[in-house]
Amino acid sequence: xxxxxxxxxxxxxxxxxxxxxxxxxxxxxxxxxxxxxxxxxxxxxxxxxxxxxxxxxxxxxxxxxxxxxxxxxxxxxxxxxxxxxxxxxxxxxxxxxxxxxxxxxxxxxxxxxxxxxxxxxxxxxxxxxxxxxxxxxxxxxxxxxxxxxxxxxxxxxxxxxxxxxxxxxxxxxxxxxxxxxxxxxxxxxxxxxxxxxxxxxxxxxxxxxxxxxxxxxxxxxxxxxxxxxxxxxxxxxxxxxxxxxxxxxxxxxxxxxxxxxxxxxxxxxxxxxxxxxxxxxxxxxxxxxxxxxxxxxxxxxxxxxxxxxxxxxxxxxxxxxxxxxxxxxxxxxxxxxxxxxxxxxxxxxxxxxxxxxxxxxxxxxxxxxxxxxxxxxxxxxxxxxxxxxxxxxxxxxxxxxxxxxxxxxxxxxxxxxxxxxxxxxxxxxxxxxxxxxxxxxxxxxxxxxxxxxxxxxxxxxxxxxxxxxxxxxxxxxxxxxx
Length: 482
Description:
The chain is mainly alpha-helical. Helices cover 74% and strands 1% of the residues.
């Protein structure tokens, strides 16, 4: 029954919501992901500079990439290609393209409605913009509970199962010992709070990402003459024009969109929770940075995995097996047996940082629900570590199906909230665009121009002092999207 419900919700309802509303946000924003594409690289460079005592935009990006760049980029792509053929990759690209606009708005709104937590840091996310933007406390509570159950608990156990069994297959390590070791390492990071989690992510995310991309690019460049033809095959297969994959047209669309959504998480409501912690001068700047992370996740990393599989010669139509095995064997077919070990080690790093990300999402939800309770926080940490040990030794197929259902409900609540708050998002985007047109490289958010919104003045003061010259945005512009 869970599988039937999950197939309907995540395989049909979620796809329509993500693609449909992502397209709507793209049109309403006048293609914000295209207009600001070149600007994304400049904002990314600027994000590395943080403010003393605050988490930088770069740290928030690394923390969100810790979750986005995970098992979905290895196993998820393998599953998409196995069940949907090469055409699934094209539909992953389409999903990411419209998802970039969804990510822009959800992360911008998370910044707009963030709250200072009293320790010089910030908290925010969908629960916060639902409560303070829509003034629907009950809806915000529902979202927070779904976030806590899905990411804080269920997905952490599943990630533990994935990495311990991968290490067992590659090195013969007993799962119970690797599970305990994983829990100890994670516990040492957890006790340091968000700052330590961000610091570890700063170190591991660039390393795991660059090394993985480097190895896959090596495989791609050794067969560079085949790449143009493979890209043509991907596009033709996406529309059923490649004879070998013509029968997979429906599966290509479903698997491409579904695996794309789960890989980049755009619109699911998870990334805004970490996007809100950054200290930035304007909410839209963080939206631009987070849209860039969707591009990096899908167009770069997922594409590298897909080309690795398709160019290796190991994959053939009708392949049966899980995504990890397909990726491992594809790399091994080109570089030798060490390729299987590399994929296992890469997966371990991906999962480790992903658990850190999941843990923080749960912690953020818990604080929203019960406030700053030290007893609740310690209990949460203990339960997460226990689930990691337990999950390493269990087959959690039923839990996984349940978590997929709760995550789809999570996305539904978030996307409805985004649609209802789109006018606020457009106003903030308009303020950012107007300042950039006036020649200001780093626009500054003045909360006095948004006095009608329920903002935290500690997070967003009125008439803030800025390093760059300010610009007056006409009241007519602020009202133009109302």
